[in-house]
Design a protein that fits this description.
The complex is a heterotrimer. Chain A has three domains: 7-62 and 182-189 and 207-246, HypD, alpha/beta domain 1 (Rossmann fold, 3-Layer(aba) Sandwich); 70-172 and 256-300, HypD, alpha/beta domain 2 (Rossmann fold, 3-Layer(aba) Sandwich), CATH 3.40.50.11740; 316-358, no CATH class. Chain A is 38% helix and 17% strand. Chain A has helices at residues 7-25, 36-44, 47-50, 70-80, 103-108, 122-128, 145-157, 172-180, 194-200, 207-212, 223-239, 258-267, 297-300, 316-320, 344-347, 352-359, and strands at 29-33, 55-59, 85-89, 113-115, 133-140, 163-169, 189-193, 216-219, 244-246, 268-275, 279-288. Chain A has a five-stranded parallel β-sheet. Chain A has a four-stranded parallel β-sheet with strand order 4-3-5-6, with helices on both faces. In chain A, helix 7 (145-157) links the parallel strand 5 and strand 6. In chain A, helix 1 (7-25) packs parallel to helix 11 and helix 7 crosses helix 12 (258-267). The radius of gyration of chain A is 21 Å and the shape is globular. Chain B folds into two domains: 5-52, SH3 type barrels; 55-90, no CATH class. Helix content of chain B is 19%, strand content 34%. The longest helix of chain B is centred in the C-terminal third of the chain and has 13 residues, at 56-68. Chain C folds into two domains: 7-148, 60s Ribosomal Protein L30, Chain: A; 156-321, Phosphoribosyl-aminoimidazole Synthetase, Chain A, domain 2 (Alpha-Beta Complex), CATH 3.90.650.10. Chain C has a seven-stranded mixed β-sheet. Chain C has a four-stranded mixed β-sheet with strand order 1-6-4-5. In chain C, a hairpin with a 2-residue loop joins strand 2 and strand 3. Chain C starts with 13 loop residues before the first helix and ends in a 13-residue tail after the last strand. Classes of the chains: A alpha/beta, B alpha+beta, C alpha+beta. Chains in contact: A-B, A-C, B-C. The A-B interface holds A 1, 5, 7, 10, 13-14, 17, 35-37, 62-65, 90, 117-121, 140-141, 143-144, 146-147, 150, 153-154, 193, 195-196, 198-199, 220, 228, 235, 245, 247, 249-253, 257, 259-260, 263 and B 1-4, 6, 28-29, 31-34, 43, 45-48, 50-57, 60-62, 64-66, 68-69, 73, 76, 83, 85.
Chain lengths: 368, 90, 334
């Protein structure tokens, strides 16, 4: 077949295929995407509106920024307020709430906080400001963590002694396992995070089929690639197969990116980590290894930040696992709104609660 | 999470590449993809080349197309050599 | 003249006079300004529009413009969006101690060039100097007055369902240029800030189609902000087509790298017009004859349903909401 495939036609055919599969099943299916970029793509392409009613796409804890807990934000803000500190961060972090304020509020109060596109952009800032401590807020999943590790190594190679990381990096598979450990979890399969798999490879997700007998599809981010993955999921749901398929072969290999994994393992090791809305999950985070501690600000200049217990009525954990809808949460639309979010599902514009809040039931129809 | 875009490697100096996306250029480190060469297409995330982008999706899309048009499920059964990474040649 | 701005240049004494005579007047001088009165003495009649805006931008100079060009175009365009032809502008400058006089000359030369292009004069102004560290080199403020073009009535209240939404050209060039510079992205010379005075374009548009319902320039917050404002104020729905949104390939590249949506990128030389459907072709013909409107196209239309909301029909046929932007534009990784 050599002629160019009409992607719109292919998209419509995939939709028809999904519909056919679901009709033969005769029930609603529920697939979870555990990647914020998938959530954004689904939202941007309006896929929720064109998929059959009986296909529910729910957003899991797929945005490393949204799941960053209060205590990390409070710590970052406390460092930011120190006279000799420059914070470098991805733009996503600015409005993530801490217990009292956010980085953008700290910025307004005069903290030196610089938004960078790449963690590597922190090094020239460190060189230009030898009397300051430059702290990179290292958040991210397996995709982003190797970039921070690489910058730590580059800092050492270049003899830069005033660059540090404050690590809140997280690992996706342990969080999925934590969700699945809940017997009430109702999920028929996973849309697996393509760019995480670029680093980890598909093998890291094999547990889904092996241990939980659930299908999973590693998917790309174009609307068509997502439809393709949903189509494969419905196929497996119908046939009762539980396999982990790679439908993002152009960048995802079974073995991932060995060089990135090596650099990650050089600098970081797994550690227990707290997720906003989900709590502490064993071995779901990354901490700087002993050998690299001079680049870890929490070791070089430890801070004792008091843990502030906030209103715990937030039910994001249950929303994420599909047990309740946002309307069942007492905070939804009241104490917790997009401008002042309490749970992770409201932090990001694309979070489940934020979508429900803005578009009514997550299935917004223009004019209805 | 994790925005990443395919880009073409235009130049490499030490371990820094210049990559091009839709006609705009930016430096990107190849520390995480040391085998990257000028002319390769790579996936860029947060200023780092993360992986090679291969032509495989063309084969996959065609197989998917055939499947949607009544052929037996072909895509997941592409022979290993076709699924293997043939780098895009500019 | 000194090489750097000193506090005394803003103190009103002989140093201030020297700055005025050696730098400002040679750049901006005209018979009204040259009078150096406490205020400009002008004669105008009829309905006038009056507006003001302040300009703070880093970097100060960028491909396609500078803070000086922005300060003129922004105010001229704000007047144009009310249906008025800009005539006179004021210029307030807040300079930081230590700011290079050479840079100030460049900024003022850009002010003059843009003013000449727009056909307006800077007729009054003010200069203050703040201490080192208290400013960002230079901040500008301009205010402008102009006559409202006879027979026009620009107001969101004139917008009704079934009208066409027109944009004057490619979206996002300005913000992509600025954000690109800030984050190490180099763009080809073909892409630069679109900063431009739109008064001549608007005049031609209003002369050809006096019943244009409303005009807005999508600056901060981009087209998304303007469309949401209009949907709200006019109490109509606005539905645009993803395929119709004009964005340069390179600007899409910047957006992909930094995680932006082109609809949210600021423009400094574009306008959005809402016009009765039957006038669309005529208006597009006129717009396309002007160099700042040559890529004009229909973006979408207003609807009876979804009042107050902006929807975008995606290439897959889904409709998503285009929200009001919440905050500033920062690169994202998610």
């Amino acid at each position: 077949m050599t002629e160019k495939v009409d992607l719109h036609v292919l998209g419509r055919e995939l939709l028809a295929g999904i519909k056919k599969n679901i009709e033969s099943l005769g029930r609603t299916v529920r697939y979870m995407e555990v990647c914020g970029t998938h959530t954004v793509s689904i939202f941007r392409a309006g896929l929720r509106q064109i998929l059959p009613e009986s296909v529910e796409l729910v957003s899991g804890p797929g945005c490393p920024v949204c799941v960053t807990p209060d205590i990390y934000m409070d710590t970052a803000i406390a460092y930011a307020k120190q006279e000799d500190v420059i914070i470098t961060t991805f733009g996503d972090m600015l409005k993530v709430p801490g217990s009292k304020s956010s980085l953008s509020e700290a910025m307004a109060e005069g903290a030196d906080i610089r938004v960078v596109y790449s963690p590597l952009d922190s090094l020239p800032i460190a060189k230009e400001n030898p009397n300051k401590k430059v702290i990179f807020l290292a958040v991210g999943f397996e995709t982003t963590a190797p970039t921070a590790a690489a910058v730590v190594i580059a800092a050492k190679e270049q003899g830069i002694e005033n660059f540090y990381v404050l690590s809140a990096q997280k690992l996706v598979p342990p969080a999925m396992k934590s969700l699945l450990a809940d017997p009430e979890m109702r999920i028929d399969g996973f849309l697996l995070p393509g760019h995480v798999a670029v680093v980890t490879g598909t093998d890291d997700f094999a547990f889904l089929a092996d241990e939980y007998k659930l299908p999973g599809v590693v998917a790309g981010f174009e609307p068509l690639e997502i439809l393709r993955a949903v189509y494969r999921l419905t196929q497996m749901t119908v046939s009762g197969e539980a396999k982990v398929l790679n439908e993002y072969g152009k960048v995802v290999r079974a073995e991932g990116n060995p060089a990135a994994r090596k650099i990650l393992d050089m600098v970081y090791e797994p550690a227990d980590s707290e997720w906003r809305g989900l709590g502490m999950i064993p071995a779901s985070g990354l901490q700087v290894k002993k050998e690299w501690r001079e680049y870890d600000i929490s070791f070089v200049r430890p801070l004792d930040i008091p843990r502030v217990e906030k209103n715990t009525a937030c039910r994001c954990g249950e929303v994420l696992s599909g047990k309740v809808t946002p309307h069942d949460c007492p905070l939804f639309g009241k104490a917790c709104v997009p401008e002042h979010s309490i749970g992770p599902c409201m932090v990001s514009v694309e979070g489940v609660c934020a979508a429900w809040y803005k578009y009514g039931g997550g299935k917004f129809q223009y004019g209805k | 999470m994790c925005l990443a875009v395919p880009a073409k490697v235009i130049e490499i100096k030490d371990r820094m590449a210049t990559v091009e996306v839709r006609g705009v250029q930016r430096p990107a480190s190849i520390m995480l993809l040391p085998e990257a060469k000028v002319g390769d297409y790579v996936l860029v995330h947060a200023g780092f080349a993360m992986q090679f982008v291969t032509e495989q999706d063309v084969a996959e899309t065609n197989a998917l197309w055939a499947e949607m048009n009544g052929a037996e499920r072909t895509m997941t059964e592409l022979p290993e050599n076709e699924r293997a990474s043939s780098r895009i040649v500019p | 003249m000194e090489n750097e701005i000193q506090l005394s240049h803003g103190a009103g004494g002989s140093m201030s006079a020297k700055l005025m005579e050696e730098i400002v007047l040679p750049a901006l001088g005209n018979p009204i300004l040259n009078g150096l009165h406490d205020g400009a003495q002008l004669s105008m009649s009829g309905r006038i529009a009056f507006t003001t805006d302040s300009y703070v931008v880093q970097p100060m100079f960028f491909p396609g413009g500078s803070i000086g060009r922005l300060a003129v175009c922004g105010t001229v365009n704000d007047l144009a969006m009310t249906g008025a032809e800009a005539k006179y502008l004021s210029l307030g400058m807040i300079l930081e101690e230590g700011f290079s006089v050479e840079s100030l000359k460049r900024v003022l030369a850009d002010v003059r060039k843009a003013a000449d292009e727009a056909g307006i004069s800077i007729v009054t102004g003010d200069t203050k100097v703040v201490g080192r560290g208290a400013g960002d080199g230079v901040y500008l403020n301009t205010a402008g007055v102009g006559n409202i073009i006879e027979g026009t009535d620009i107001s969101p209240l004139n917008v009704k369902p079934g009208m066409d939404v027109i944009v004057s050209g490619y979206l996002g060039d300005h913000a992509a240029t600025i954000m690109g510079q800030r984050h190490g992205i180099s763009l080809p010379e073909t892409v630069q800030s679109d900063a431009a005075p739109l008064n001549h374009l608007v005049k031609a548009m209003l002369e050809a189609v006096p019943n244009i319902a409303v005009l807005r320039d999508p600056t901060r917050g981009g087209a998304a902000a303007v469309l949401n404002e209009l949907a709200n104020q006019a109490k109509v729905g606005i539905l645009i087509d993803e395929d119709a949104v004009p964005v340069r390939e390179e600007v899409r590249g910047v957006c992909e790298l930094l995680g932006f949506d082109p609809l949210y990128l600021a423009n400094e030389g574009k306008l959005i017009a809402i016009v009765p459907h039957e006038d669309t072709e005529k208006l597009l013909d006129v717009m396309r004859k002007d160099k700042y409107g040559k890529n004009a196209c229909v973006l979408g239309h207003t609807t009876e349903e979804a009042r107050g909301q902006v929807g975008l029909r995606t290439e897959f046929g889904g409709i998503r909401i285009v929200e009001m932007p919440m905050g500033g534009l920062v690169p994202r990784i998610c």
